[in-house]
Amino acid sequence: MPRIDLRDDDATTEALRQLVAREAERPLYVHVAGDRDAHDELARLGFVEHGRDGDDVVYVLPPTLE
């Protein structure tokens, strides 16, 4: 799985939006270093906190019911 490591918040948000739009497979998992700002952005995109992996917080974008 590709790792996105961008420092600019606008670029990160756009990269996540593109990833979510392009990657159809669900669930989609994201590992984030314990950053609360990232939590807010991921929540806006539909991700929920799933657990922890060391110091990282693991988020998941669950499948949608269509």
Elements, N to C (H/E): HEHEE
Mean pLDDT: 78
H/I helix tally? 2
Q: What is the rounded Rg?
A: 11 Å
Polypeptide structure, described:
With 66 residues, the protein is α+β, with helices and mostly antiparallel strands. It is 35% helix and 27% strand. The chain contains two helices and three strands. It has a three-stranded antiparallel sheet with strand order 1-3-2, covered by helices on one side. The longest helix is centred in the N-terminal third of the chain and has 14 residues, at 9-22. It is globular and about 30 Å long. The termini are far apart. The mean pLDDT is 78.
Describe the secondary structure blueprint for this structure:
Blueprint: H1 9-22, E1 28-33, H2 36-44, E2 48-53, E3 56-61
Describe the structure concisely for a colleague:
The protein is an alpha+beta fold. 35% of the residues lie in helices and 27% in strands.
